[in-house]
TrEMBL record:
Residues 1-37 are annotated as: Disordered. Residues 65-276 form the Limiting CO2-inducible protein B/C beta carbonyic anhydrase domain. It comes from the Eukaryota. This is Limiting CO2-inducible protein B/C beta carbonyic anhydrase domain-containing protein. Residues 1-17 have a biased composition (Low complexity).
Length: 285
């Protein structure tokens, strides 16, 4: 974050690291060293997964991803020594997709930090806007601390197929997609039927498509149509940009506040398992 009062930090742990400065729009499919994240170009220490198809895809596409509970615990272990205390001086804000399979992330965060202010929408986009962020920032004192977990999401099934997830808890036996909204966006581009007109009956989806294109320059050319992974990365970049912009606006008014920002991708695996790939971690003081 570009401010004289801001600093980014990297929280290290055995087996992986929290990258603090990802490059924009790097292709996750290019051949790279196994010790470099394909998205953010940061060095990582390899985590040993089992050799099944899911973990092979997870390690290849999201190296350094942690189990959901471990990820939230590691972020807490990083922030408490920096003065972020649950139920004392800290408000946690969560921005996730509306999809019910993202709820374990919110539940885990609230178990660690207390009740959260919810600021997400379809795809994890932060469409609560100035009013929503202002409301959150009025729910803590002027010397308060804020933590943001803002993540888009994607599925990887037991066969290692990207975008696929089984929702067995709702009784569905066939595969479904995650993120459904981002997958629909991909399908519109690929079929040359992309509709960027504003639809009052589909407000969030209308905004999602235009916003990601405007913020990342995502290709809408049917001959160079992006796949779901590329669109998911573009959604992550858009969420990061919006979060930093809104937090900087608040920080200019309240000089004694601290803000910790985590953005990335939640990955849904087989049998209800969840993982987190951290794209960026920032501390604004």
């Amino acid at each position: 974050m570009t401010s004289s009062s801001s600093s980014t930090y990297s929280a290290s742990r055995a087996g992986t690291s929290f990258p603090s400065n990802p490059s924009a729009r790097s292709s996750p499919n290019k051949s790279r060293s196994d010790t470099v994240c394909p998205h953010c170009n940061q060095p990582i220490k390899e985590i040993k997964y089992s050799d099944d198809a899911f973990h092979t895809s997870l390690q290849k596409l999201f190296p350094g991803a942690l189990g959901l509970e471990e990820f939230v615990f590691e972020t807490k272990q990083t922030l408490v020594p920096k003065g972020f205390y649950p139920h004392v001086n800290t408000l946690v804000c969560v921005g996730l997709c509306r999809d019910e399979i993202t709820s374990p992330f919110e539940e885990e965060v609230e178990a660690m930090w207390g009740r959260a202010f919810i600021c997400g929408s379809l795809g994890g986009m932060l469409f609560c806007g100035k009013t929503g962020f202002s409301a959150a920032h009025h729910h803590a004192p002027i010397t308060g601390h804020f933590i943001y977990y803002c993540f888009t999401h994607i599925g990887i099934d037991h066969e290692g197929i990207i975008g696929s997830v089984y929702r067995t808890r709702s009784g569905m036996e066939e595969k479904t997609t995650a993120c459904g909204a981002l997958a629909a966006f991909v399908a519109e581009i690929a079929s040359n039927k992309l509709n960027l007109n504003f639809d009052e009956d589909d407000i969030e989806m209308s905004m999602l498509k235009k916003h990601i294109i405007n913020k990342t320059g995502l290709s809408t050319d049917v001959m160079n149509a992006p796949d779901l992974l590329k669109v998911t990365m573009a959604a992550y970049e858009t969420i990061t940009f919006d979060l930093e912009r809104h937090v900087r606006r608040d920080a200019e008014k309240f000089k004694d506040r601290r803000y910790a920002l985590f953005t990335g991708i939640q990955i849904h695996g087989p049998d209800g398992s969840d993982y987190c790939w951290l794209g960026k971690a920032s501390l604004l003081i």
